[in-house]
């Protein structure tokens, strides 16, 4: 039969554990970004052009293939790197080449980046190149935005729209 001393000890241990949980639930305070600042997030997954153009197979080449693998074209799986650039008020804050994912380099390139900026009016230019061409950019979007303190601006690339979206 447990004694009153054992119940008191158990009560003290449970109270100490509850106090620790309560303390660490509130402290240290977590801040997503510094107070009085705004944040820009660039996030997308996009598959670039293939490293080589697809080639049309001849009728002899098609005939050599097994019946379930016959197709009119053959394409390399590998994709080119994506070059992405983000400019805020004429200052480049991101200039990066993104590698395609996957074992054969045939998956989409992915990025998720955060940037802390001061609140107020900004001119943001987002550029992306996803082709074999090595000069210029295939997509470019320029927007004027006004950010409030504590605001998040999400920038995403939509290939089907051919444009960056700012939300």
Task: Please name the defining characteristics of this protein.
single chain, 167 residues, alpha+beta, Immunoglobulin-like, 10 strands
- The helix content, as a percent range, equals 10-25%
Number of strands: 10
The shape, in one word, is flat
Q: Structural class per helix/strand content?
A: alpha+beta
CATH class of one domain: Mainly Beta
In whole angstroms, how far apart are the ends? 65 Å
Our count of helices gives 2
Task: Output the helix-strand order.
Answer: HEEHEEEEEEEE
Give the overall average pLDDT: 92
How much is the radius of gyration in Å?
27 Å
Largest sheet: 4 strands, mixed
Strand content: 35-45%
The CATH architecture of one domain comes to Sandwich
Strand order of the largest sheet: 6-1-9-10
The CATH topology label of one domain is Immunoglobulin-like
Topology, element by element:
Layout: H1 4-26, E1 38-46, E2 55-56, H2 59-64, E3 73-74, E4 82-88, E5 91-98, E6 109-117, E7 120-129, E8 139-147, E9 152-158, E10 163-166
Parallel strand pairs: 1-9
Antiparallel strand pairs: 1-6, 2-3, 4-5, 4-7, 7-8, 9-10
